Amino acid sequence: MTGLARWRRPGLWALVVVLAVGALAAIAIATTPPGDPMDPEGVGPAGGAALVAVLQQNGVDVETSSSIDDAVAALKERDDDTTVVVANTRNFGLGAATTLRQESLGVDRIVVLSPSTEQLKALRADATALAVGAAIQVESRCDIGTVDQGDSLLGIDTRYEAGSDATQAKACFPLTIAAGDGGDEGEGQHGAGLLELPSTSGHPQLTIVGSTTGFTNGVITQEDNAAIALRLLGASSRLIWYQPDIADLVDTDATGADDGSLLPRWIPPALAIGAVGLLMLALVRGRRLGRLVREPLPVVVRAVETTESRGRLYRRAQDRPRAATVLRLATLDRLRARLGLRRGDSVDTVARAISAATGRPVREVLDLVAGPQPTDDAALVRLAQDLSDLEEKAHRP
């Protein structure tokens, strides 16, 4: 039985360790965030590695950039035959959008997948983004070169309406809303899944696609998604695949200067108002100190009682040097007044005056008023008696 129990204990600990490791592994797997949509190196269903591989097989030079700085550096290598794609607009900040627009004026085309209205404004695109609510399949009903008549795209989740100034915009994949589903709009076409805006002085040719999932590994092979993606992104010999990082969410101004803060813009004014309010409250409610006011004591405390109490405190603390210093300073102050000396006169001057008044040698007077400190109570009592005797004799010129 003893041997069996001896074997059971290590087995129990081993089981506990195995269960703990399994639990940690399960937690790690459950808490691992999924890859970013359209990650050019992502091989999962949400990645874009399949599209990148097909583009490279067709002779397209694909360059990936994970930040706006990397994208700008790639754009500085001027090449007219270049397309830029913003594959994941989740981290596409307005400052990054403005910078990309400014630095890509010489490229063939910018393709943006599912941008918001604010991002479109930063790109100077006269269009409005409206959510569809679900990834749906829509037929093209257009022929614009990159999209053929009858192409079917699966995964459209955003519709776009061109503004009044975008008269030359080309729309594909129109969305039809039945009566009663669109509120007061009624039945008819309301926006499109793809808008193509011609180049202007403010931006190059811009293609807005209301789909991100349609070009991912899991959906790219369905319907005409692959053909549409290859025509959009493979029209140029060079493709800059810009996958914004979370750092690109920080807004920058038109010159690219970072404001250095992720806080809302109303925080500094609110803090300033709060500080002014606290200052005003301190001025209104603060205590003002006026002149000293004498207050009569309820009892009369004699000076001798105060002196005796202080002496008892010195005795209890065994602070003989402090007591001796107090006695000597008090004696010197009284003798200065009696001998007509000034309060600022040095100890040597006072000692010579006391010597002249008492007839004692100057060295003996200096030992009394500025000599070594007493080491015991007897020496302290003797010093007090000698100082009192010296003060009494100084009365006699």
Secondary-structure map:
Blueprint: H1 2-31, H2 49-57, E1 61-65, H3 68-75, E2 82-86, H4 94-103, E3 109-113, H5 117-122, E4 127-139, E5 152-162, E6 170-177, E7 188-197, E8 205-209, H6 225-233, E9 238-242, H7 267-285, H8 303-317, H9 320-338, H10 347-358, H11 362-370, H12 377-393
Helix pairs in contact: 3-4, 9-12, 10-11
What would you note in describing this structure?
It is a single chain. This protein has helices at 2-31, 49-57, 68-75, 94-103, 117-122, 225-233, 267-285, 303-317, 320-338, 347-358, 362-370, 377-393, and strands at 61-65, 82-86, 109-113, 127-139, 152-162, 170-177, 188-197, 205-209, 238-242. The chain is 41% helix and 17% strand. The strands form two sheets. The chain has a seven-stranded mixed β-sheet with strand order 1-9-2-3-8-7-6, with helices on both faces. The protein has a two-stranded antiparallel sheet with strand order 4-5. It folds into two domains: 49-249, no CATH class; 304-393, no CATH class. The chain is an alpha/beta fold. Helix 9 packs parallel to helix 12 (377-393) and helix 10 (347-358) packs across helix 11 (362-370).
